[in-house]
What we know:
Helices cover 79% and strands 0% of the residues. The chain has helices at 3-20, 23-32, 41-59, 63-86, 89-117, 120-140, 146-152, 160-179, 183-206, 217-225.
Amino acid sequence: MEISVIVGVLGNIVAALLFLSPLSTFWRIIKNRSTEEFESIPYIFLLLNASIWTYYGSIKPDVLLVTINGFGSLLMVVYLSIFLIFAPSKTKIRTAALIAVVNVGVLVAAILGTRLTMRKRAQVNTIGLLCDCVTVFSFASPLAAIKTVVTTRSVEFMPFWLTFFYFLVGTTWSSYGLLVYDLFVLIPNCVGFLLGVIQLVLYAWYSRYPTPAVLGADETEHLVHSEDP
């Protein structure tokens, strides 16, 4: 068996773990019947990322890309449905609008725009370039929680496993892209590897502080305002 196939299968396993990593977060949302301070943005971009890579894999073709990203797309639909059910009204409207624009509008425009105006090779190149852009945004999306992390000095709402598996996905898929000489796979995953390192360092730094749930009200307020002039 070629080493590229082995690395590709390993990449699929790691990506599957990435897609499954939010299970504990969404179980908490269901149990508490609230999205609390969790952000929907990482899952919106993860859905776009998985769906656009599924399409890229189908036109290239590459069965390893299609299988794992098709699986991921289905899971993200389930996660976002749960988020919409339990989100407060204002957040629900904002999330639904983002889903309509990002997950429906961008995907449909990309597919129709390339199929109606380009030949097969140009379609692959254009969708591949779009995949690169979306993947970089997807890798960076956990940073949407950065304001909450810095303000509260708590990583409670920055999901560790999502961040960790983003890092592993960047590592394995950049290796796969190198082995099969696919720059569209290699470049964004190298960026993802670097962003994963940054986010894990950030998580390690702020995980030294106790979560607000452990602190009393006065202590929490002191932490939030301790650096105010």
